[in-house]
Design brief:
By secondary structure, the protein is mainly α. The chain has ten helices and no strands. The protein starts with 5 loop residues before the first helix and ends in a 10-residue tail after the last helix. Pfam families: Na_Ca_ex.
Length: about 260
């Protein structure tokens, strides 16, 4: 092995480490999400579509901010849009191979239409080859309205209190959830760095890197948590995480892209 091959080998080690973190983190995350939802007396799907979706999509946010500061908006836009495709095709598709996924009426009415509408909105904004600040602001307002509606419905539908919950019972799922999310975020970061490094060694265009390898890397947390949720019988967590992640990617993260194609 020559000295020039060492960085590439390091990228592969980072990739394998990230995948291991995603698997273990997904296991802790599912346990913590179910426990937190029980303590707060709200549906697990609400936790999944908000807090969990934001946490598992944090690698996309990191890519959006860092690539924007570096003047590489093509990378961040490719990642956000590519991650949506990966979530729907690979993550849901792989999960459905295990068995069908029942979806609640609340998710169909509240989250699914938004997850379908926002990619069309971005396509309209990109007709003139630019996402400007005004369009980004509109996307953030849209995102805020969806989030407010979700939280309002969650508070309205809280289950009645069933007695006092011991402090230790509250602490365990919180630690599991936080620990799992940290591992998922670390996994996403490791996989993003490693896949981007591998791709650049082969001189691949920034947008292609973002839409393929980086998008796959940032979607590993969703894949791990969704598959494990399915295996454990918590379908609402998996579906909520995927839909919520797509909404975060399309509205919250794309609004930070500031994409401008001059070619």
């Amino acid at each position: 092995m020559t000295f020039s091959e060492v960085p590439l080998m390091n990228d592969y080690v980072l990739l394998l480490t990230g995948i291991a973190c995603a698997g273990f983190g997904g296991e802790l995350f599912v346990r913590g999400t179910v426990g937190i939802a029980s303590v707060l007396r709200i549906a697990p799907s609400v936790i999944a579509v908000t807090i969990a979706a934001f946490a598992t999509s944090s690698p996309e946010l990191s890519v959006a901010i860092n690539s924007g500061l570096a003047g590489k908006s093509q990378l961040s836009l490719g990642d956000a849009l590519g991650s949506n495709i990966v979530n729907i095709s690979l993550v849901l598709g792989f999960t459905l191979l295990i068995s069908g996924i029942p979806v609640s009426k609340e998710v169909l009415k509240r989250d699914a239409p938004v997850a379908i509408l926002v990619p069309l909105l971005i396509a309209i904004f990109l007709i003139d080859n630019i996402i400007d600040r005004l369009e980004g602001l509109f996307m953030l307002v849209f995102f805020g309205a969806w989030m407010a509606t979700t939280l309002k419905q969650a508070l309205k539908e809280r289950a009645p209190a069933g007695g006092r919950v011991r402090t230790v019972d509250r602490l365990v799922p919180l630690l599991q959830g936080v620990g799992g999310l940290i591992l998922l975020v670390v996994a996403g970061r490791l996989i993003v760095v490693s896949t981007a490094g591998i791709a650049r060694d082969f001189a691949i265009d920034d947008f292609i890197i973002g839409a393929t390898l980086v998008a796959f890397g940032t979607s590993v947390p969703e894949l791990a948590s969704t598959v494990l949720a399915k295996i454990k019988g918590h379908d609402e967590i998996g579906v909520g995480t995927v839909l919520g992640s797509n909404i975060f990617n399309s509205l919250f993260y794309c609004s930070h892209c500031g994409y401008h194609q001059t070619d």
